[in-house]
Design goal:
The structure holds two protein chains of two kinds.
Chain A: H1 4-29, E1 31-33, E2 35-36, E3 40-41, E4 46-50, E5 59-63, E6 73-76, E7 83-86, E8 92-98, E9 104-106, E10 109-113, H2 118-147
Parallel strand pairs in A: 1-9, 3-10
Antiparallel strand pairs in A: 2-4, 4-7, 5-6, 5-8, 8-10
Chain B: H1 11-33, H2 39-44, H3 51-62, H4 65-78, H5 80-87, H6 90-106, H7 113-121, H8 123-156, H9 160-208, H10 211-221, H11 231-250, H12 252-260, H13 265-277, H14 280-289, H15 304-353, H16 359-381, H17 388-399, H18 403-411, H19 417-437, H20 443-461
Helix pairs in contact in B: 1-9, 3-9, 3-13, 3-15, 4-5, 4-14, 4-15, 5-11, 5-14, 6-11, 6-12, 6-13, 7-8, 8-9, 8-15, 8-16, 8-17, 8-19, 9-14, 9-15, 9-16, 11-17, 11-20, 12-15, 14-15, 15-16, 17-19, 17-20, 18-20, 19-20
Classes of the chains: A alpha+beta, B mainly alpha.
Chain lengths: 157, 479
């Protein structure tokens, strides 16, 4: 005859393990991803990165609000890559997360896009343009001047 | 896309293509290399390259990872300006046309760009120039090796290191056997493949994804890409032009071709090569604008071109993309290996270390140099240190400082070696400061501006008068 207390203890332990095991098993099917991104971008493009390989069909949501009340855009994660390059953003704050699903969860990351000021861009543009015109004029003038001279005559250039 | 992996090609097919492609090029290089009897044959293809081959090699060498991978990358990052701005790099070939004719006339028996700088400006400028050339050559070699790895990874998911190793082995192989003769001949075939392939891909893309849908998707979700006043793109525009000019004006890749071309072919060949090259970045860059519409957001911006093409064209398209991009990479990698090994053999080994070396000795050393450069490049490529665009533009800080010293050195007697050395050194340092403080898209512009300013001062202040006959250096041996 088995010990009654021992038998009850075994049954209780068995039930305890089973009950404890259920939430753990459920948690196994849920993958928690950690999303990372640069805090700032000055060019309007940046890379979102995952801490592990993505699942098929995963979607990234974009919003201008950290609480994602309104979703502005969705991007399907491409292939098996752990990174995704997003581009073409105007000035503003942008928040990203993985679209919550039964088996997927992630943190929220924010990226602030602040493009270079116009004066800086135009200064460089017109400096470049001026320098380029100078170079082209120099090459054309010097080449035309030397075109018909023989090497010996080049002394007079 | 294959169901299992999400990639356009299976890794087995990717590897098979690499092996078949590699064997074909290496055997062709070996076949052509049988005609090489002297070091001059090996390094300068006997100085007898005609117009058709000359134009094709100018165009094909300039179609590289820059055009097939970086043009789509910059379009994906900077939008319309990235695409148009990139095509302006053709100005490098076009403006080099008169310089090439002048080089051929001033130095009919010259070997390298380093030869010119040493004879025209002296030792201090030569050291600055060689440092710039070596940094640039390795920057470009590494970017090409990396591009091979990125290409295979994007198309077949094959590990980056396998693709990178494969393209290096193939290009080192046929350059080793065939020298510049093989490089120019393979460039001709590669140029035909590139033009046909790029046209085919663009045609399929426009047929599959209409221009209207691409435009509305980009306008709604990526508006900055269509903004013609995009600040970073405006800053990038002239930087890219000066980078391209610096690359071509200083690099022995282009000088060795100018010296290898027959008679007065150089001017016409570079002009035609530039005009043929001009539309290619527009086509390859346009491909990137379709990425958002197709739901393609690449892990790294430099993978966007092949990924879009493979998505649109399927498996056969992916094979076409592979052949086109691999041809583009090979046509540049082989040229750079050949030109840089010439520079090492001629400028460093022959002129500095072993002036009495005979022809056979130099030929043998040139081959060792190619092998050594290949191994070094492979080691540098092992860690994937930056995106291709960023890596290439780092070299922009160096090469743009050589533009004015080279142009003025070829035509004007007054610029002295001291000012040329100062222009290259301070130009490079300022460009690097711009690279790290502002970004990669200002490095070449800052470098060229500072260098131009110093050259201008040099012309005003220097009383130097160079004797052009000094460029016709007599060889110390003929064995």
């Amino acid at each position: 005859m088995p010990n009654r207390y021992g038998f009850i203890s075994y049954i209780a332990l068995f039930l305890l393990f089973t009950l404890l095991a259920r939430p753990v098993a459920a948690q196994d099917t849920m993958t928690q991803f950690t999303l990372s991104a640069p805090e700032q971008s000055r060019e309007g493009y940046f890379v979102l990165a995952l801490d592990q390989a993505p699942l098929r069909g995963m979607v990234v949501q974009q919003s201008s609000q950290a609480d994602f009340i309104k979703i502005d855009a969705e991007f399907v994660w491409f292939g098996d890559f752990e990174k995704m390059t997003l581009t073409g953003f105007s000035d503003g704050n942008f928040y990203f997360r993985l679209k919550p699903a039964e088996n997927v969860q992630s943190n929220v990351v924010g990226v602030t896009v602040t493009h270079y000021p116009s004066w800086q861009a135009y200064t460089l543009f017109f400096t470049g343009l001026g320098l380029f015109i100078l170079l082209v004029i120099t090459i054309i003038t010097l080449h035309l001047r030397s075109r018909d001279t023989k090497v010996a005559e080049v002394q007079d250039d | 896309m294959t169901e299992a992996s999400g990639f356009a090609l299976s890794s087995t097919l990717g590897l098979t293509l690499v092996v078949l492609f590699g064997l074909a090029w290496v055997l062709f290089g070996w076949y052509l290399g049988r005609a090489n009897k002297t070091h001059e044959d090996f390094a300068l293809a006997g100085r007898n390259v005609g117009f058709a081959l000359a134009s094709a090699t100018a165009m094909a060498t300039w179609v590289t990872s820059n055009t097939t991978l970086v043009a789509p990358q910059l379009t994906y990052q900077f939008g319309v300006w990235g695409m148009v701005g990139y095509s302006f790099a053709a100005l490098g070939l076009i403006l080099f046309a008169p310089l090439a004719a002048r080089i051929k006339r001033l130095m009919p028996n010259g070997y390298t760009s380093g030869d010119f700088v040493r004879l025209r400006y002296g030792q201090s400028a030569w050291w600055a120039f060689i440092l710039i050339s070596v940094v640039y050559a390795f920057g470009w070699l590494i970017s090409l090796g990396m591009a091979g790895g990125i290409l295979l990874e994007a198309l077949s998911g094959l590990d980056y290191h396998i693709g990178m190793t494969a393209i290096l082995i193939i290009c080192v192989g046929y350059t080793l056997f065939g020298g510049l003769r093989a490089v120019i001949a393979t460039d001709f075939i590669q140029a035909l493949i590139i033009i046909l392939g790029v046209v085919l891909i663009a045609w399929f893309l426009i047929d599959t994804v209409s221009l209207e849908t691409i435009h509305s998707e980009v306008q709604d979700n990526h508006p900055q890409l269509l903004d013609l006043l995009f600040p970073a793109a405006i800053m990038f525009l002239f930087n890219n032009i000066f980078f391209g000019l610096g690359e071509i004006f200083h690099s022995n890749v282009w000088w060795s071709r100018a010296l290898a071309f027959k008679g007065s072919v150089a001017f016409k060949a570079y002009l035609l090569g530039g005009v043929l090259w001009l539309p290619i970045p527009i086509v390859t860059g346009f491909i990137a604008l379709a990425a958002p519409q197709l739901g393609i957001f690449p892990p790294s911006a430099d993978m966007v071109g092949p990924m879009v093409a493979a998505e649109v064209l399927g498996k056969i398209g992916a094979v076409v993309v592979f052949i086109v991009v691999f041809s583009a990479l090979a046509s540049s990698l082989d040229s750079l290996l050949a030109a840089t090994s010439d520079l090492v053999t001629r400028d460093i080994y022959h002129k500095k270390l072993k002036p009495d070396a005979g022809d056979k000795h130099l030929l043998r050393f040139n081959r060792y140099s190619i092998l050594g450069l290949g191994i070094l490049t492979w080691l540098f490529c092992l860690p994937k240190i930056a995106t291709l665009g960023a890596l290439l533009n780092f070299a922009g800080a160096f090469v743009a400082s050589t533009i004015f010293p080279i142009v003025l050195g070829l035509y004007n007697r007054r610029l002295s070696g001291r000012y040329a050395a100062l222009a290259m050194t301070l130009g490079t340092l300022s460009g690097l400061a711009g690279y790290f403080v502002v970004g990669f898209y200002v490095a070449a512009l800052v470098s060229c501006s500072v260098s131009a300013l110093i050259c201008g001062l040099g012309l005003l202040l220097s009383k130097h008068k160079f004797d052009w006959q000094q460029l016709n250096e007599q060889e110390e041996h003929s064995a």
